[in-house]
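Progress narrative, work stream C.
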Amino acid sequence: MAKRKKATKKTARKSAKKTASKKKTTQKAGTQKATAKKARKSAKKTAKRAAVRTKAAKKTPKKKAAKKAKAPKKTAKQKVTRKKAAKKATPKKATKRTAKKAAKKATPKKAAKKKAVKRTAKKAAKKAARKTAPAKAKQTTKTKKAKTARRVPTPKAAPRAKVETPKAPPASRDVLPVLDLESFEAKPLVEPGVKDEFVGSTRYAWLGSGQCGGRLVKSFYDLGYKKVIAANTTHHDLDLLDIPADQKFLMDIGEFGAGKDMGRGRDAVSRCRQELLHEARQKFGTEVEHIMVCFGAGGGTGGGSALEMIGVAKDYARSIGKKEPARSVGVIMTLPTIGEAASPQVAQNAYNVANEVGQLAMEGQISPLIIIDNEKISRMYPGLTVKDFWPSINSTVASLFDIFNRLSSLSSPYTSLDPVDYQSIVRAGGCAIMGLTKVSEYQDRFALSSAVRRNLEKTLLCDGFDLASAKVAGCAVVGGKSMMAQTPALQDNINYAFDVLAEITGNATIHRGIYEDQRNSLRVYTIIGGLDFPAARIEKILTPA
């Protein structure tokens, strides 16, 4: 029983304490309401005073009203009272502070009692805040400026974690992208043009100008060199050529020929240059290694158009990809006979054209320059009829030129003049000469060497060359099979003839060839390149003997 009495006493004490603390909190809340009312009243009074002052300012003049319209300066007392009123107008903070003070006073020394008192104080503060929340006072323009209550800082939201997208590693400077062009291979453009029928190591194209040039290219056409174009200023000369009509090019200048006037021949090519180049590309195609321009030096069309035709040939060589057009374009030029040179205009034309073209050859602008002396060839064929004269001369020139191209394409069981040797002679620059000698006494060592000398001195197509100025030469000896097999010391005799040729040409590079065929004879073919221009022979054109 004693124990129960003690417990009831304790509970009573506790309840008394609770009620006492509740009364204190309610009393303090009442005082807070009263202070809030006082603050409201003081705010209303200040607002009324401000309104009265504004009305008075309206009655005064504009300048005085502008000065009085400024807000009145606040005194130190007003600032203090307003701060106190603002602090009292925040009930939540005030109730929390008073609750904390009451809890501190009511806390006993023991830890258990402290925890219980704190819990009760928190609950009481929450209830008092809900019941005693005063209404918000109306704020005027002045009260807004005077308001100094601290706002509770809202907690900032935690920053979102940045999701980093995976970045590709930077490419090193040594790594380059793969381009489609790496697998691209430029295919060479192949245009066959007119199909050739010759046998030889070098594929030629022939461009003839004038009557003489047309006849020369026609002779090569008959030997199987089908890539030819004959150009002229009159259709009369073109009609007589037995070549396809689409390989005849009429340079129409409104006249029936140039009439020995080289100016007309020059103008004809300059007008038709682009069309002539187009015809060359179409008829010759791209499978050409060397272009030869043929003309007569004394004619108006051939001589006048010589330099322009050489230019067209170089343009064509560039268009098919030749790296050295100057070494891919050669010239065959004929000199007039004594009877033709009796005409002063023909002689002057031949002299001028020969010197101009000869200068190109010496400067390396063309290779080679082959000069055909019609007067010398006419003496080699005496007694020919008028009909056979020019065909015979042109055929001789074309056949001799063709021999070396054929030999360089043939294999030999002995020594061969291969295509590279032949090209080195053709591309040596300067002038070139060709000759042929038949040797009957081939068993005699000196007979063969003297035949080589006669070949160079008498049977060449033009005289007046300094053989010691030669850069390169080729000599081919052709004999029958039985002769090659049964003639003793024939190899020694041939070697001696080669040595003699080297001495005559000033120790030029000599390319040798020994071939056999079915004929029972021995022939010596000679071609020399890189010779100086025969200026002395050209001077004779103006002063014939």
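Work stream C, second folded protein:
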Amino acid sequence: MSKYLPKQADLIKEFEEKPSPLKGDYADREWWEMPYEFREGNFCFPAKPEVIEELGFPNPRKWAVTDDDWKLPDGWQKTLMDGMRERIKKYRSLKLYLDSCVRCGACADKCHFFLGTGDPKNMPVLRAELVRSVYRGDFPMVEKILKGFAGSRKLTTEVLKEWFMYFYQCTECRRCSVFCPMGIDTAEITIMVREILQLIGLNNNWILAPVANCNRTGNHLGIEPHTFVQNIESLVDDIEELTGVTVNPTFNRKGAEILFITPSGDVFGDPGVYTMMGYLLLFEHIGLDYTISTYASEGGNFGFFTSNDMMKKLNAKMYHEAERLGVKWILGGECGHMWRVVHQYMSTMNGPADFLQEPVSPVTGTKFANAKVTKMVHIAEFTADLIHHNKLKLDPKRNDHLRTTFHDSCNVARGMGMFEEPRYILNKVCNSFHEMPENTIREQTFCCGSGSGINAEENMAMRMKGGFPRANAVRHVREKHKVDSLVTICAIDRASLPPLMRYWNPGVSVYGLHELVGNALVMEGEKKRTEDLRENPMTGIEEKEGDVD
């Protein structure tokens, strides 16, 4: 149990006693007068100076969020305001989102952090107002027009600390944007504010350490190529021991038809490794001509949480490796922010990838027209197409020991519009699937509470608060349908949801979608299956299933 994890009773007490505009003296005060406090469990540690130096970012130094003196550089206000001016000029969307909010409040109760904390500054409208108030106060023309009927503030140290606290309590999930009548994307504001804060050395080590690792070795964990291969080969051995089947991945093989890229968490982290085993079984089952790069060994992109330039740099390795290896197209594994970057930015940021072909399934002949520009296909689309064309031999009874529900990962759902493919697969590989309430799934899905680089242990208390709405939806299906398995298609979800479930819903385990595919696949030459990929017993298999022909 993390030392940063409070007891549930203490969390509930804090929620009930926390100052609010609806309580006590604060009802007569302005929103910016609401107090805030950095304390153990509600913030992430700053980046270490050696990490900042490795990346060439500004103001490397040792400091603590709880210090009074954050050791800011001389002229930091000017640096930030110049940075804001530059980005408002460069990104029309940022200016539009800052100017067009009418403060109607439609977004107010849509943020999981507001619902979990009760803190009004976690309402998307007020979180953005932290910046808008400075934008009004320091940009003369805007101030002249708006000052008479809208609040404005100067950029002080206290305001700066508010920015750091609340823009790292936004997971860029974009749920609020679904309900905004003006179409404001608060995530874009968060992205820009974090980028601006980097200019004076305000950052997060749980983001920048993986960025530095990926910049150096090609993956977030900083794993060298030989270790990357060894880990996958150990999974190959596990698969053979469990199933009797030898899978045959290749590495850095030139001339393969497909380059497969997945988050490094699927190679090194529990429970992601079981998802990786599912991929390997699937590819062996269909005889896919693919290779894995030990250099572009990361599908995720923490540069997305850092700056546009870093996002572009880290993403470029996928196209570079595809060109070097001479593949036809790229197949991507289960990830959230990886696919937000690929789907919404990659083609203009790193493209055009004219050296690649429009993706066509070598098994079904299906053209993936939606990937015509990026040349990159999501594994759920690929697998759903295989199932639709009856190319997989599946036995859903092998997942009868699991009663499942599905968590729509924010970036795949709202960022790509992918809702049905994973559900189609899930219904084909298991016999027990139950949806969470309608207003908590698909476009309206609740975030895991730990995305966008705030999945640090020291931030555990805040993560449990932010994840509460999702946990509450899981509790609903657990109580109604005895659900014990939460399935997702995001590596950060697979890392963040297990502690969330242990805290709010003990007994609910977290699975990747392709782990369940791997359980259900009937492989040629396999031995009798009595255990799933986690070596847990498959319910009733001993009695009901004979040897597979």
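Confidence is low (pLDDT under 50) at residues 545-549. No further action is required on this item.
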